[in-house]
Design goal:
The complex is a heterodimer.
Chain A lengths: L1 E2 L2 H10 L7 E4 L2 H11 L3 E5 L12 E4 L2 H11 L3 E2 L2 E2 L3 E5 L3 E12 L4 E7 L6 H7 L4 E5 L8 H10 L6 H17 L2 E12 L4 E3 L3 E4 L8 H4 L2 H4 L3 H9 L2 E4 L4 E5 L2 H13 L6 E4 L6 H12 L6 E8 L4 H13 L8 E7 L2 H7 L6 E2 L3 H14 L2
Helix pairs in contact in A: 2-3, 5-6, 9-11, 11-12, 12-13
Chain B lengths: L9 E5 L4 H13 L2 E6 L7 E2 L2 E4 L2 H7 L4 E4 L3 H12 L5 E4 L6 H11 L5 E3 L5 E4 L3 E4 L8 E8 L2 H13 L4 E6 L10 H9 L6 E7 L4 H12 L4 E6 L24 H10 L8 H11 L1
Parallel strand pairs in B: 1-2, 1-5, 2-4, 5-6, 6-7, 10-11, 10-12, 12-13
Antiparallel strand pairs in B: 3-4, 8-9, 8-11
Helix pairs in contact in B: 3-4, 5-9, 6-7, 7-8
Chain lengths: 380, 289
């Protein structure tokens, strides 16, 4: 799932005709101050990272003048927000609002169809609202064969008690659904959708997540992917085309198939280790892909040991073994100890190919994980 | 006995001339599956592994009186291929393709509701009745004919669990990979109902993972409707919220739904033992039998 940054999503919204505050992106304090001067005070200075509760964590500040803009930009740029470094800020006109609403469209997976949502209780964590007062969120399921009928958007807005602004909100919601469908979004949200004293409506925040599997038909969005990634390892994973998630432990994990890789993480935890990552090389991987996977995990400085767990269906054990050998033979000394477990298609051939001077070969999932956990502990 | 597929299943492979389609059609045939035809637009009149290929799926299924279709069509075209399959009168469609856009699948799912066809997948390894037929990419050699029904959201995890069972001499009646996507044709409850009604299935293994609420729904279904003993496994106990763990469907939402804890607790409440590891699952199955 590709998450657009707020400024990227707002660009998409503005193009579709949804009102957004005037804003500029800045990557340095000087740029930020210049942007604030040209927009006019007061401004909001907002960290562009994918972290829930940005505001509470200090990632959003208001500035009344140039001096405040300077100190706010200086404080936010480069700050660590829940493990992510802030590389850019959005400088935005501060909207004088009287009310904050919520609108969104997402896939209801249990119903197998999209659902549009409207609430008069925007501006706070909508999941908290959903938990405390589910009736405060009006839901309207949409038939994907027909799209959202205009009446559905109106009905949702009126049921949410939006009164005077209901038809305007309905128009925004219809546009959001059209964007959701046209851009292959998995979810799209405006929280808050601000209402001003003279009943103008403005999208003050923007969330847009795109289905990775549909990026092939959206060149414009695909071009945003690198910037949308949060760190260098995730960018590298995008380039290699791996499903990769970085975690906080020190046991690197490589495997084939999401369920088996998740299970390997769980078993690392079960034996007292801490997983450093999730990396799925997918089905049918050849030697080069295997070598790329090792390169990926070696380049994570948190990793102290690696476990390779392959159960071959369409993936062949001999190909995996060749890739592991090739990747490791280029080193004078192996950077981090590697434990390999091969099962399934051509596993015995693979075990014969593996260079046991470079890797430890284990027969079972459990013994391989235990070995890697011990190796990781030994380095601390 | 078995569920959904057996010696009498007559299979058309959609996309049989492609790399994956051709390779796995051959593997299916070698396993003993009755592959009667292939369908690829523009390739009608050719043969692949002695199987005749047709330009349209409808001709292939009609000419050969087929009752099942396996879809090996690239993701960009898989939605269209599933519509084509649902418009024939086969009983079973198995879609192996990984990476089908979610919105394409939402439209297929909507159409599925208007038909009597069973769809398995997409993004799944398929279905196998050991010794009789396999439709999909499961490695046949690890399976053994027996009395344990298996249903799983994940392919390689299925192989791991099956391997643990087979190595202890515990065979399988039928194994169904339902797929790791958020929207799938056959869910846990469908598969549990099939196994519950199969006299040859004496125990059921259900392998779930984080994301969605299908495992919780299955647990409450088991509590009310399933008398066959069930053993569970849930992958993703260590998955952090908000991160998609490979499968499009495997994600714990920010509000904490879809967690492994919630699924394990629901299964516990339904009296389903949940193994901490795949070999612990095999231990439970052994005790049950």
């Amino acid at each position: 799932m590709m998450k657009l940054h707020e400024h990227q999503a707002k660009g998409v919204f503005a193009e579709a005709g949804i009102p957004t505050p005037s804003s500029q992106l800045a990557t340095s304090v000087e740029e930020a101050v210049d942007a604030a001067d040209s927009i006019g005070y007061p401004v909001a200075i907002k960290a562009q990272v994918h972290v829930g509760g940005r505001g509470k964590a200090g990632g959003i500040k208001l500035a009344e003048d140039e001096a405040e803009a300077r100190s706010a930009a200086d404080a936010i740029l480069g700050m660590d927000l829940k493990g992510l470094t802030v590389e850019s800020v959005l400088i935005e006109e501060a909207v004088d609002f009287t009310n904050e609403l919520y609108v969104g469209v997402t896939m209801d997976r249990s119903a197998g169809k999209p659902v549009a949502m409207v609430s008069a209780r925007g501006g706070v964590d909508i999941e908290e609202v959903a938990a405390e007062a589910p009736e405060a969120i009006v839901r309207e399921h949409i038939d994907p064969a027909f799209g959202m009928h205009p009446y559905q958007a109106r009905q949702a807005a009126f049921k949410a008690g939006l009164g005077e602004v209901a038809t305007d909100v309905a128009r925004v919601l219809s546009t959001l659904y059209d964007l959701w469908a046209a851009k292959d979004a998995t979810s799209i949200e405006v929280n808050p959708l601000m209402v001003t004293a003279d009943n103008e409506i403005i999208a003050a925040d923007a969330v847009m997540n795109i289905d990775d599997d549909a990026l092939f038909r959206h060149d414009d969005l695909e071009a945003m992917e690198d910037e949308a990634a949060n760190d260098d390892l995730e960018r590298k994973a995008n380039q290699y085309g791996f499903d990769y998630v970085r975690l906080s432990g020190n046991v690197g994990i490589i495997g084939n198939g999401a369920g088996l890789v998740m299970t390997t993480l769980d078993i690392v935890d079960y034996y007292g280790g801490a997983p450093a990552n999730f990396l799925d090389i997918g089905g049918g991987a050849k030697a080069e892909r295997v070598a790329n996977a090792l390169d990926m995990v070696f380049s994570d400085e948190n990793v102290d040991s690696i476990v390779f767990n392959i159960f071959g269906g369409i993936t062949r054990g001999d190909e995996v073994a060749k890739g592991i050998n090739e990747a490791l033979e280029q080193f004078e000394t192996i950077p981090k100890p590697v434990t390999v477990r091969l099962a399934g298609t051509n596993a015995s051939e693979g075990r014969e190919i593996l260079n046991t001077e470079l890797v430890t070969v284990e027969e079972t999932l459990e013994s391989a994980v235990q070995d890697a956990v011990e190796n990781a502990e030994g380095t601390n | 006995m078995s569920v959904l597929v057996d010696d009498d299943t007559r299979v058309v492979v959609q996309g049989i001339t492609g790399g994956e389609g051709s390779f796995h059609a051959q593997q299916m045939i070698e396993y003993g599956t009755n592959v009667v035809a292939g369908a690829v637009p523009g390739r009608g009149g050719e043969t692949v592994h002695d199987v005749p290929v047709y330009d349209t799926l409808e001709t292939a299924t009609t000419e050969h009186d087929a009752n099942a279709v396996v879809v090996f069509v690239p993701p960009a075209f898989a939605g269209d291929a599933m519509f084509e399959a649902l418009d024939t009168d086969v009983d079973l469609v198995v879609s192996i393709t990984e990476g089908v856009p979610q919105q394409d699948m939402a439209r297929v799912y909507r159409r599925l509701g208007e038909t009597d066809t069973r769809l398995i997948g997409p993004n799944c390894p398929g279905i196998i009745t050991p010794g009789q037929a396999k439709l999909g990419i499961l490695p046949g050699n690890i399976f053994e004919s027996g009395n344990v029904g298996l249903v799983s959201r994940s392919g390689t995890l299925t192989y791991q669990v099956v391997d643990n069972l087979t190595q202890r001499g515990i065979g399988q009646s039928t194994a169904i990979g339902i797929g790791g996507d958020p929207i799938i044709g056959t869910d846990f409850i469908d598969a549990l109902a099939l196994f519950e009604n199969d006299p040859a299935t004496d125990a059921i293994v259900m392998c779930g993972e984080i994301g969605g609420e299908d495992e919780e729904a299955a647990a409450s279904y088991i509590d009310k409707n399933v008398s066959t003993p069930v053993v569970g496994f849930i992958a993703g106990r260590t998955a952090p919220p908000g991160k998609r763990m490979g499968h499009a469907g495997a994600i714990v939402s920010g509000s904490g739904t879809g967690t492994a804890e919630s699924k394990i607790a629901a299964l516990d409440d339904a009296g389903v033992p949940v193994g901490d590891t795949p070999s612990a699952v095999a231990d439970f199955v052994e005790e049950t039998l």
